[in-house]
Amino acid sequence: MSNFEKGLKAGVISGIIFGISIYSIQYIIERLTSGYDISYSIIFMVIIGGILGSIFGAIIGIIFSKTYKKLPGTSSMVKAIIISIFAWIFFSFLIPFILRYGYSYFSDNFIRNAMSSQVFYIFFGIMLGLLWDKFTEMEKTCSECQRVVPKDANLCPYCGKKFNINIKKVNKETKLTSKKS
Ligand SMILES: [Zn+2]
User: Fold this and answer.
1) Which among 126, 152, 128 has a CA at the least distance from the CA of 139?
2) How much distance in Å is there from the Cα of 156 to the middle of ligand 1?
3) What is the reported pTM?
4) Ligand 1 (single-atom ion) residues, CB below 5 Å
5) CA of 32 to the centre of ligand 1 (A)
6) Of 114, 116, 70, nearest in space to 90 by CA
7) Which end of the chain has fewer CB atoms within 10 angstroms, the N or the C?
8) How far is the CA of 167 from the centre of ligand 1 (A)?
9) What is the residue extent of each domain of the chain?
């Protein structure tokens, strides 16, 4: 799996969960706090949230994979949280500012909405980082040609380099048997 694929996949999965949770929770809060009846159902919000979330996740996931090495932080989790905070600033402040939403930019309502979405973005970042690591764990890079090869391969399909995967396994097994005896 290339970094691009990995970012796209991790982004879309996290984005769908992000979109569904932010839309359905907002719907529930609105239903509980506003006096008037909301005509559309929660299923509609889940579908909309899932669609918008997957688009959002794909964009952020691709940017994440392309900027991965330049992002600050030593772990992919920290990097993913940083990019999700950038996304939060972009989608909660810059986009509404450009589009000039119905309410005033500096109204209490606007600030409250923007602040309350922050937790969802951080949650998205955590998922993105976790999935990125999960997908990275499933593969390894050849020490000779730097290409991504299947994790259980003991021979590089590109350059023919032999990996010492079997030696490691034997060592593990001998350790286990020596512990038993
Ligand atoms: Zn190789």
Assistant:
1) 152
2) 5
3) 0.75
4) 142, 144-145, 156, 158-159, 161
5) 58
6) 114
7) C
8) 18
9) 3-137, 148-180
- d(Cα 72, Cα 60) in Å, to the nearest integer? 16
Tokens, residue 159: 């350059």
Q: Is the pLDDT of residue 128 over 90?
A: yes
- Which tokens in the block code for residue 61? 């996931």
Q: How crowded is residue 38: how many other Cβ atoms within 10 Å of its Cβ?
A: 12
Would you tell me the crossing angle of helices 108-137 and 76-89 to the nearest 10 degrees?
150
Model pLDDT for residues 34-83, shown as the tens digit of each residue: 766 667 788 999 999 999 999 999 999 999 999 999 999 999 999 999 99
12, 17, 23, 29 alpha-carbon torsion, rounded to 10°? -160
Q: Say if residue 133's pLDDT is above 80.
A: yes
Q: Residue 125 C-alpha to ligand 1 middle, in angstroms? A: 32
Could you tell me the distance, in angstroms and rounded to a whole number, from the CA of residue 103 to the centre of ligand 1?
57
Amino acid 174: pLDDT: 55
The rounded Å distance from CA 149 to ligand 1 centre is: 8
pLDDT at 30 (0 to 100):
81
From the list 21, 16, 91, 82, the residue with the least C-alpha distance to 55 is 16
Over 80: is that where the pLDDT of 181 sits? no
Cα 9 to ligand 1 centre (Å): 25
- Selected residue with higher pLDDT from 65 and 115: 65
